[in-house]
Design a protein that fits this description.
By secondary structure, this protein is mainly α. The protein has 3 domains: 90 residues, no CATH class; 71 residues, Helicase, Ruva Protein, domain 3 (Orthogonal Bundle); 126 residues, Zinc Finger, Delta Prime, domain 3, CATH 1.20.272. Helix content is 59%, strand content 7%. Strands 1-2-3 form a 3-stranded parallel sheet. Strands 4-5 form a two-stranded parallel sheet. Strand 2, helix 4 and strand 3 form a beta-alpha-beta unit. It is globular.
Amino acid sequence: MQEAALRILSLLPDPGEKVEFTGAELRRDIARLGDEARSTSLFGDRRYIWVRASGDEAHDALEALTSVERLWPVFVLAPGATDKGRCAKLLEKRDDALVAMFYPPDLRSVTQSVRAMASAAGLRMTNDLAERIAAASGLDTRLAQSEVTKLALYLDANAERPRDADMAAFAAIGAVAQDDGMGTIVNAVLGGDVARLGAELRRIDQLSLNPVGLLLAVERRAAQLAGLAARMGPRDNPASFIEGEKAARRVFWKDADDLTRELARWRGPALERLVDRLVLLHRQLLTNSQQAELLLMQGLADIARAAARRS
């Protein structure tokens, strides 16, 4: 959703200053959006309005906006809104508005997008690597594009001088889940870092992370923990075991401390219950997309509290 909005924004010859509102702010003062959209700064600079709302939260402000003469473009990103909602019905038939609906991507479509990004960047990439990048990015094409760009820089590739990209090069630049946003959230949840959890969950909205994509990142880490726990056995010490895995290069060195902490909390029956809880949460997100972000935050908070009790 945000990627599409940014693409439209890039078509403006001079978008100017960004003025940002939340849906909650506009719900409290419905005239504020119209006032800002027709106002000028002291120096007459251009501007655009960027609204992050939930569902039809911004409807009344948008309704008030339609009655004023506007100077500046308004972008509204509203996860949870539908084509049958009040905002869509208010705007869809207007000549001066565009309504677009977006749905959670699947692994196949994002893999295809990654291959297209790679080709444009001068990278020859197998489908397996493209799928790995898509999954590691949590199906977020913005993060995937960041990884492709880093790969192209690392390999000194461009459209005139293409290079082969492989798993070794991807490993060398670091996993996207750790470097670009999701990793810190995943580690706060599975590591039981309740004190840091609130700030990390707020980043879900700030980064416009796809709820299903973030849950997939948690699921991948849980699967990794299950594999490690199976190799470790019931009596081994997690710290010494992970140290051995790191030495054998079966664990990335940046992940070692987090994996040690998480493996100490999630093993045996507790790990089995975690996997069952993630499966249930995934099903809930898919069947209730309008409340997916709220359901995810509640579910991750429950898991973090359970991890903290096991410390």
